[in-house]
Each structure stands twice: as structure tokens, then as C-alpha cells.
Here is the input.
Amino acid sequence: MAEYELDCFGEACPIPLVKAEKELEKMNVGDILIVAIDHSCAMKNVPEWARKQGHNVELDEIDDGEWEVVIEKMK
Amino acid sequence: MSENQAAGSSIQRSSRSRTRPKKKKKNLLPQAAILVVLVAVVGILLARTSALLAVFWITGMAFGFILQRSRFCFTASLRDPSLTGSTTLTRAVLIAFALTSLGFWAIKYGAHLNGLPIPGQSYVVPISLATAVGAFMFGIGMVIAGGCASGTLMRVGEGFIMQVLSLLFFIIGSLWGAHDYGWWKLNFMLDGKAIFMPDIFGWIGAIIVQLLIIGCLFVAAAKWEEKKNS
Here is the structure.
């Protein structure tokens, strides 16, 4: 069970999502992707998208205005 | 946030990322209290000059607050259907359009019934190729900039530095546009027919047609999401 990290600090709304999508494609089922973001829009956007895709998602506010979206690839 | 708690700790993360130091949340209540007092004081000062200014101040604050808390985003409403297949925001925007349509209609129809000049008629401008080209360019711009006008302002307020740059060029572009507006209007915008729907469908017909179109788009958006996620 590998764990990947994606640094998306400073990237505006759709970019973290697109990057996460590409990264998830490369991963195996059961792997975990941690996307670090500081754009409030992506904080809603990325978890919502990943949940709809059927993955396990956790959102963690690591600092004021900085979040980690933890995605466990399910399929 | 209930969303975080609902997800619980279902995902087993490695100890490496778990032990990352977490900064303790600062208590911002004093700052919030000072801000509320400041907003009220400015509101009172504005009201002494003009009551309307105070109304603008309060509605502006309310608009910004709702925008920030609800993550209402015009850019995402048009971008997400093709990017992720989600049309939640698209439908939210359509509901907002339906509500404002009713409001505008009531104001205009009210003025018409009372024999007053109908307000806002100078905004009934021709539809032409310029509308489509302009909309397309605006769409590209707002996706690259990470937000439309309201979204950019809201995120600058949140402290997202990159969009301060967007705001800067948004101001430069607006000023440049305003400077040459007359020329564009004369040469491109008036190159078409202006349509005021009540002239064609009647007052009642206009609002019905408008709401029907919005309703159809709403259903289409819902079906789109269903199709994309199946």
C-alpha cells in the first residue's frame, strides 16, 4: 500500500483536481494520495469529485487556509 | 466541520504523514468582534451621508459572506460539467437566475403598471456575434485566472495571493475596456437586434418563457450529471 503526495500549494481551482486525477490513474487500488491545497475552492471541489468517483476521502485542515485531501483509491 | 468528522479515520495513513506537526488553531474571535464593530461604524457613517450607500455597504458585505461560505462560483458552474461532470453549482446558478428573473420582472412590470418609466432598459442591448465571441474569451480567461469577477474578489479577501495578480489585470482590463467601450459599441455591439422579451411574448408570457428555458436547462444539468457519473 503505497502513499503518494501531491503539492498543490498556490494552484488555483481546477489544477489540483486535474493533477489528482492524473496521479490517481497511475496508482493501484488501495494506494493513498495526499493532495495538499490552499485554494478554498479546491477544498470543496476535490473531495466532492473524488467521492463521486467512489473513493474514500478525508479532509484535514492542517493550518489556517491549508488543507490535505486524503484519497484512498477504491477502484 | 461535520464533513470531516463524518469521514472519520477510515483511511489508514502511514505514520510519516500522521506525525506531521499540526499547528494549533488561533482563536480569532477578538478580531471578528473588532471587525463587526468596524463594519457597523462605517455603516452608520455612510448612512449619515446617504442611506443608499449604507444599504450598498450592508448588501455588499452580505453578498461577500454568502459567496465565501457557500463556495458559489460562476466559473465552476460552467467548468465543472465538462471537467468533473458535477452540475451542483450549475443548478445553483440556474436557481439564482430564476430568482433574479422574477425580481427584475416584478420591478419592471410594476413600473409598467404604474405608468412609470421602466428601469434598466438601457441594458437591453442587441445580441450579435460579438456576444458569443466575448463570452468565449471571458470563459477562457476566468478558467485560467481561477475565478470570475466575484470569485476573484472573494479569494483575494481570503488571502490567495495568486489571485491578487488576477485582480490587478482584471482592473487593467476593465479600465481599458471602459476606455474603448464607445468604439466597440458603435462598431460591433449595435450590429444586431435588441430583444426585450415582454415586447414579443407579453409581460406574463415573457416570465413564463424565461422560467421555462431555465427549467429546461436545470433538467438538462441534472441529466448530464447522472450520465457523467453512471
